[in-house]
Amino acid sequence: MRRAIYPGTFDPFTKGHLHIVEKASRLFDEVIILIVTHPSKKTMFSIEERIAFIQASITGLFNVKIQHASGLTVQFAKDVGACAMIRGIRNEKDYAYEAELASINQILANTVETVFLMSHASYAHISSSNVKTIAKYEGDLSSFVHPIVASALYTYFKHQDAVNEEDS
């Protein structure tokens, strides 16, 4: 079985992420979307919320599973017998960053290949940061995230605004 992992924080999971998962699911027998936690990285949504967002988004992709972990991603890949780590590439900046990580990971685990999958041009502009900004100002998120994710983002920022008003 050819197993791959697709690691990220996915805070939130976007249609760009989904596009990469769909491509990977056609190339590998099994794809594990790995929600990676970093102690130094503050996220908007809990692990449980992100899992729910991803589950809602990947309906119909029967060879895709979701897990979460902390620590070295390449070690997780080795531990689950993955032959590849999937990385989505939107532009040259992404490539430069991901190529550097791929080199390090190859030293740490030469049995796990990094596979770069190019984002479709219609998704190249989507980033979690851009999505958060659009949500904060109540812009239309329908082209960027699943409706459940959009609703959660709007709710998050409305709550933040209410908290900020109370503090004023």
Describe this structure in words.
With 168 residues, the protein is α/β, with parallel strands linked by helices. The protein has one domain: HUPs (Rossmann fold, 3-Layer(aba) Sandwich), CATH 3.40.50.620. The protein has six helices and five strands; from the N terminus they run βαβαβαβαβαα. It has helices at residues 15-27, 47-57, 73-79, 92-108, 128-136, 147-167; strands at residues 3-8, 30-37, 64-70, 84-89, 113-118. Strand 4 (84-89), helix 4 and strand 5 (113-118) form a beta-alpha-beta unit. It starts with a strand and ends with a helix.
Short account of what is shown:
Helices cover 46% and strands 20% of the residues. The protein is α/β, with parallel strands linked by helices and 168 residues long.
- Mean pLDDT equals 93
Q: Output the CATH topology.
A: Rossmann fold
Could you state the order of secondary-structure elements as H and E?
A: EHEHEHEHEHH
Q: What is the CATH class designation? A: Alpha Beta
Give the total of domains. Answer: 1
Oligomer: single chain
**What's the overall geometry?**
globular
Summing up helix and strand content along with how strands pair, one would put the structural category as: alpha/beta
What value does the Rg take, in angstroms? 17 Å
Report the helical percentage.
Answer: 40-55%
What count of helical segments does DSSP give? 6
- CATH superfamily placement: HUPs
Distance between the termini: 57 Å
In the predicted model, the low-confidence regions spanning at least 5 consecutive residues are none
User: Biggest β-sheet: count, sense, barrel?
Assistant: 5 strands, parallel
The total of beta strands comes to 5
Q: What is the correct CATH architecture?
A: 3-Layer(aba) Sandwich
Question: Strand share of the residues?
Answer: 15-25%
